[in-house]
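Predict the assembly for these two chains.
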Amino acid sequence: MKYEVLIDGHSHQIELERANKGYEATVDGEVFTLDVAMTARDVLSIIHEGRSYEAKREYSLLGETHIIMGSERFLAEVRDPRSLRSRRAAAGAEAGPAKIIAPMPGKIVRVIAAEGDEVEAGQGLVVVEAMKMQNEIKATKKGKVTKIAVEEGSAVNAGDLLAIVE
Amino acid sequence: MFKRILIANRGEIAVRVIRACREMGIESVAVYSDVDRRALHVRKADFCEYLGPALASESYLNIPKILEAARRSGAEAIHPGYGFLSENAGFARACRDAGIVFIGPSPESMEMMGSKTRARQHMKQANVPFVPGTDTGLKSAAEALTVAESIGYPVMLKASAGGGGKGMRMVASAGELASALEATRSEALRSFGDSEVYIEKFIENPRHVEMQIFGDTHGNVIYFAERECSVQRRHQKVLEEAPCSFVDPDMRRRMGEVAVQVGKAAKYFNAGTVEFLVDAKKNFYFLEMNTRLQVEHPVTEMVTGIDLVQLQFKVAAGEPLPLKQEDIVVRGHAMELRIYAEDPDNSFFPSPGRITRLISPSGPGIRRDSGMYEGWVVPLDYDPLLGKLIAYGENRQQVINRLRRALVEYFIGGIKTNISLFRRILLHPDFQAGRVDTGFLDRLLKEAPHGDARTARRTPIVALAAAIFAQQPPPGAHPASSHDGLHAATPRTAVTGDNGNARPSGWKTAARTEGVSR
């Protein structure tokens, strides 16, 4: 199986084949022989050249995959070249309207920007309150606010659309 | 001694108090709101009383409901924990009127220390050193200008009823004073229902050092070890340690004696904490007194070997302190990390939600006080403190090494936590050298995180792990069978849910973790 794996935004070409106790693999042409055990859900034990690694997988509320090794966290994106979804994701990342998503569940306590406003990247759009803290949710890019999807007092879940900036 | 104690709190502190009860053969009564039915404190307690909706004013802050729960359950005493009603003199008085022992100081002591201006007036009489400023509320902007002129800029404006880092503002020059006073007043009125504001000289980059004291109802007051609490973000403590490496034995004795003076002036009994600001020349000034058990009490327990919660029970039951000042000996070093459900990579946004995986550290010198378990949903209604990781060792360096080791073992999946932040703090040269003040963490957060030499070596393995994980059963798939070619694994729970969050059976995983960690 061939994969393109992005680790913290850097692309790596991977070939992965099942072998005796784990995998025969190459990463950007370099050969790796891995002994692999799935010790629990989302916890892999990997032995490579006598060195022991523990990798844990988790998902962010926005659906991103993170790999944790030691006490370091890596953002990981796996693109299977055969998968349509991966090709689409690769093509449409930068352009187009930016959806501003609630990063956590909470209550909208203030709507700062209005539809039609021109905003700078980093400018506050709405304020979400959760766990006794008020959090300003900011525009991820410069542009025009084409939609404010929430109103003051409404409850939101993580991943809910708050606003669109084009 | 009491037979049954109600804990008017939730989360890790409720679990902490329940443990103290069980060790002394006291029955514990937990209280809970709608969103806390599955909380750990409810599972650990002997008895449970339902309070009401999630909103704190309908549950954990509701005095009539809590007193009714105590009456119904037959509890003789109430431990308030920290936060919620712990510093509410009205609650302490209502307990006394209902014939229930409040495990804490008298309402009179709480009232004296609860208003910062009143506390300052009393402490002035007791010759306690405090930061120059006013000890009554400011009457006008003109008065503020005169005082600021006499003590010198920069100055701090503070709400008398404030606390927890809210209701204070730094003013650098006379031009800003009038508008800052207005803003602080309206914020104080909004947040604390009291617009009284006083003024203090601003001490640049002070350390925040506090002294644990303990009094009994027979007039004895003693001091324990000091705690260094300078590592703060937005005036909220993040890491605490005992002892403070900046404090020498002579300074410790002087600070302790002042703290005892404060306690005696307030006719104080039970656990209390006297907070000091310490400047670079080792001058210390009385800041305020917290009339409750502190979040960071475990570091004092570790270096003195005394269970402060059990001591609270004894003093509340009327026993004299079983210790004299000379019995308090500080041995070794201890540090506490506050684990919050917040995302350090994303402006410290709160991160409630389901804990899909919890791997906890253990081993030499490690203590965990926690209110979480695998499968539990962290509610969005309360404070984001999940638990505390505490380490003890022979000296400060060993404690830092132990915590760094424990952080590698610690894994909380499904929600974001500030665990990665601690790695940066513990590795920072200033922290390692003990050069911390209240501005340390803000300065660290402005620095770019420095790379680790091991990262480069690990990256290909990380990429491979990501690809191997991607081969594992997709959402809703049949659990793994032996033909996947890997070493036999524990049965894998299928990953489900549209956003990719794993949702295993809460009952099963909870039973499994608890079976192990109990």
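Chain A touches chain B through 63 residues (CB under 8 Å). Residues 36 and 46 of chain A are 5 Å apart (CA to CA).
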